[in-house]
Write a structure and sequence with these properties.
Layout (H helix, E strand, L loop, with lengths): L3 E10 L2 E5 L5 E5 L2 H5 L7 E10 L4 E6 L2 H11 L6 H10 L2 H9 L3 H5 L6 H14 L16 H12 L4 H14 L5 H16 L1
Helix pairs in contact: 2-3, 3-8, 7-8, 7-9, 8-9
């Protein structure tokens, strides 16, 4: 099992990055949106906790900024009907602490806000999380905020342009955090500019 990787950031493409280790081996890692948004310039040193998904036709490596995220990913993929991509989409919007708050508040609609998750699947995931997190203490601090309408509208606009929500959600949040008064059109343009800059 490949559990941790440290090396230089060689490339960023789509929702993945390429990390070149000191041994000269390059690893492609799929990342949650917030990890993608936090990537430094190419050539910089990066490190990730990783999870190797073994399929009949492929080996896929997923990277996470913290061990807690990696553990949450493994927990989510242990739920029936939740594949690696769905788990990554969940962690692109919610942190492990957010998931604990969601369970504590029985906020099933929060899970349905994740791209690709409908009401029935959200209910199923919630019940599984409730069982798996039953002995987990609720973290201190505020519960995850409801997704504001501007954020939702910008994500919908990006989806119409072909962007996956897990690819751009954290960038939209960063744009809105920098200027909370932006309207949907301005936020959409600023996000597209940020996404284009990240890919160059």
């Amino acid at each position: 099992m490949i559990a941790y990787i440290k090396g230089k950031l060689a490339e960023v493409f789509g929702s993945s990055c390429l990390v070149l280790t000191t041994g000269g081996v390059g690893y492609e890692l799929a990342l949650p949106a917030q990890a993608l948004a936090a990537l430094p310039e190419t050539g910089s040193e990066v490190e990730f906790y990783t999870f190797l998904a073994v399929r009949e036709d492929a080996l896929e490596l997923y990277g996470f900024a913290s061990f807690a995220e990696r553990q949450a990913f493994e927990m989510l993929t242990g739920i029936s009907r939740v594949g690696c991509r769905t788990a990554l989409a969940i962690l692109s919007i919610y942190s492990p602490d957010d998931l604990v708050h969601i369970v504590a508040q029985e906020d099933i609609p929060a899970l349905a806000r994740v791209s690709g998750i409908g009401a029935k699947t959200a209910q199923h995931i919630f019940l599984e999380l409730k069982y798996r997190l039953k002995n987990t203490p609720i973290p201190r601090g505020a519960a995850p905020a409801k997704m504001p309408s501007v954020l939702r509208d910008v994500l919908d606009g990006l989806a119409n342009l072909g962007y996956a929500e897990e690819e751009c959600a954290e960038t939209v949040k960063t744009v809105l955090a920098g200027d909370p008064d932006l309207d949907v059109g301005s936020a959409l343009r600023a996000t597209l500019k940020a996404l284009a800059a990240r890919r160059t």
